From TrEMBL:
One of its GO terms (molecular function) is oxidoreductase activity. InterPro entries: FAD-bd_FR_type (IPR017927), FNR_nucleotide-bd (IPR039261), Riboflavin_synthase-like_b-brl (IPR017938), SIP_fam (IPR039374), SIP_rossman_dom (IPR007037). It comes from Chryseosolibacter histidini. Residues 16-114 form the FAD-binding FR-type domain. Pfam families: SIP. SUPFAM superfamilies: Riboflavin synthase domain-like. This is Siderophore-interacting protein.
Amino acid sequence: MTPRLPKILEHMAESRLGISCTVTAVEYFHATLKRVQFRGELGMETFVPGQEVKFRVSDDEYRHYTPTFFDLEKGIFDVLFYLQGNGPGSHWASTLEAGDTARMLRTGGKMRLATHNRYHFFFGDETSLGLFRCLKEAVHQKGHEYLGILELAEGSFGWPEKLDVSVDLVPRLHDERPAQEAIAYLNDLHGLLWKTWKKASFYLAGRAASIEAFREALVARGVSNDRISTHAYWSDGKKGQLINSRQ
């Protein structure tokens, strides 16, 4: 469901809680994959990997995003936008250029790194890249380990490498068998390897149907539900999808 607020309430929230930010850098990894860096007086004591920020993208709509990078001391953060061109969030992000201003609101986020666990397993797609890039950096800082599987469209297979996210890649099949290639990969993990990774913390984000299928496969292989975090960013047939955005 697309989040909407009456214009007067949105303006009140922005005027009281919004942080003015300026676009300081724009980088295209692909025509539909754009990194935007923002700078502002963030007024935050801490940033937790997986935490989200929120921007107004039209008069009465907003979108949530997971920064891929956050530097509180310098007051800068990066957001990775997947520009599919079929919604207000995508349109707004596609127009951002250096020197533009926007007001950011801090918010929570469903995905937080399970810092008590040494092992972390990512599953998602193009819309999960920003989140996984952020979590991956936190994993490395703690000296932990991660594995990942991304199901991608054919033209997106080079994206993870450009973002320095080391994961295995499988094709995304738009049919009645979502995540089947990723599940086959999962089922190839066995013996001592699976004994170790079965106890990992699992982070599933992206296509709703694929998340559900992959979660069911994990549970069938003995992974407890309390080790699985999910965040659906998009569903088949719904318009207005954008990377790391609640639609």
